[in-house]
Write the structure tokens for this entry.
Amino acid sequence: MSDVENKIKEHFKVLVPKLMSYLRDDYYKYEYELERPNDSIFFSGTFYMRIKFWINDNNDVKDKNKTNKNKEKIIIMRLVAKTPITTEAVQQLMKANDQFYNEIIFYRNYATEGDNIPKCYYTNENDLFGATLVLEDITTKGYKIHPKKVDIPLDDILPVMKEIARFHAKGYVMKEKHPEKFVGFIETIKECRYDANDNDPNSHYVYLLNHVTCRPINYLRKINYDNNFCDKLEECLKNAYRKILLKTIEPVEPLAVLCHGDLTINNMLFKRDEKDTRVMLIDFALIRYGSPAIDLSTFLCLSCSNQVKCENLPIVLRTYHDELTRCLKENGLTNLEKYSFEAFWNDYVEHALFGYTVCSYFLHTLMNEDLPPLPDILDKKMEDLANIVIESGGDKITIALANILIDLKELGCFNKILS
């Protein structure tokens, strides 16, 4: 058994007795099982937890050793437990402890009863080997991971747009009605990925982004696509971390809002019935304050690039905007001129390149292309790591990234950056 596995075993051995008091007080015996999800990406400290409670129907819990077998019943509870226990190298690269801190404060200080998110039963940033969150397992309510990672049908894209609109609307309402509380919460969020003070061109994320974003350039030249554009684009992408990413994440008022920050298909679950499709967002470790396009472009570029092109993007963004406006009105906001569709459209065009930067290093993972497990590649030199990502998926990924760039160019996303 590895050191990480030993830590996980000991962590839950100490955690579970404490957790029980948060769940029920009428049991006299319990058992639990842990199971890792099969579809974990990169590092994951997520476990399915199945707890079996033995309960006396007469509710005689004063003496838990005293049982009445005739009135005994068993209740099974299914939960999701999350902890950042992993290798030291992965923890440092992913800033795992900071990510868990963000999700904990999200549930403690921002989420409210009635939000369309998994119920949180337990949070603690100081358990045996670090932080722990225990949430309801919403798959027991019929929610499921989408069967596709890319090329999501439009009928499923639109419910996602409505759900992220409701998520953003809550932030706008709090920002206007309770500005001090909202700003106070935003100031507690830790930066887990994009450090504006990171001036080391060889640091993992800076080096990786400045190289993998250039992947489609040679292909675009090969198909004789606008040489002048390719030259300017290549020069820009060589410093993509500063020229694109840091600029697109900088909050611009009045549309800056609390973003999910990692709106990928893996972080949402779908529930279908005869009437409609409902979506629930999960995993709030990368929340951040910035343009709503951070969320919109991540999802649309990663999973919807073939379905959502320039010609039908207005339909998708209109669905988002209509639901956002409805929620703002429902919560008593009246001065909505600054939330016009034109304002959101322009904001998306200005910030949608964020979605491409995410695609450049993550699309191959969603498309199920082979990549060694994260712990296996952390010891490699940065140039070797970048080459592994660039080569992953071959021409299929390269062409997909090139098509995303072409579509963003036609949308006008490069007008300011390359002017």
About this structure: The chain is about 45% helix and 15% strand. The beta strands are 27-35, 46-56, 72-82, 120-127, 130-136, 144-145, 257-259, 268-272, 277-281, 288-290.
